[in-house]
Amino acid sequence: MMGEQKKALTAGVALLERSIEYAVGSLRLVTPDALCRGTPCSGWSLQRLLDHLGDSLGSLNEAAASRTVELCPVSAAPWPVLTNPALSLRDEATMVLGAWTALLAGEPVSIGGWHVSSPVVAAVGAIEVAVHGWDVARSCGEQRPIPPALAEELLDLAQVFVTPADRPGRFAARVGVPCTTPAQDRLLAFLGRDPNWRVHL
């Protein structure tokens, strides 16, 4: 059984690694002038999106370090105001990857009192990080597709983990796209994004 858990954790961490590598590439596109731009997340500026991504990375780091994630921390430290917050996010993403790679066993993670397996946490984190990486690139006016194989895997997982109860709180309504469209577009549409979204420069 331990061998199966280790395999599952290894697969989850590998998926998270690929998502982080993709997202870090998108973060390299961010300039201070772009922070006020809109994003595929309706009503969010790029600055707000980066703040949210920072929170997500912080939660992943917390999960790996202590196996506990507080959904509503009482005294969360605010992110520092930086000329380009994407620089610190790239460092944070590297720390997250190192923390998850160092895990030796698939111990469960307590999230708001609910126990979730480590592989599931890593997989959900991979979805979050990769899709926000796409959001960041589009906000910067760049076409930076999620790698097809990664998009396929994330789409399969998203269809399992994202339920109707997650809408409209965590995700917008699903966007209709033909079933013949690339996996990336089906993933984005499933998570409430318009795959053809363009930023107004």
From TrEMBL:
InterPro entries with a match to the protein in the record: CHP03086, DinB/YfiT-like, Maleyloyr_isom, MDMPI_metal-binding
GO molecular function, one term: metal ion binding
One Pfam family linked to the record: MDMPI_N
Gene3D superfamilies listed in its UniProt record: dinb family like domain
Domain Mycothiol-dependent maleylpyruvate isomerase metal-binding: from-to ranges: 26-137
Name of the protein described by the UniProt record: TIGR03086 family protein
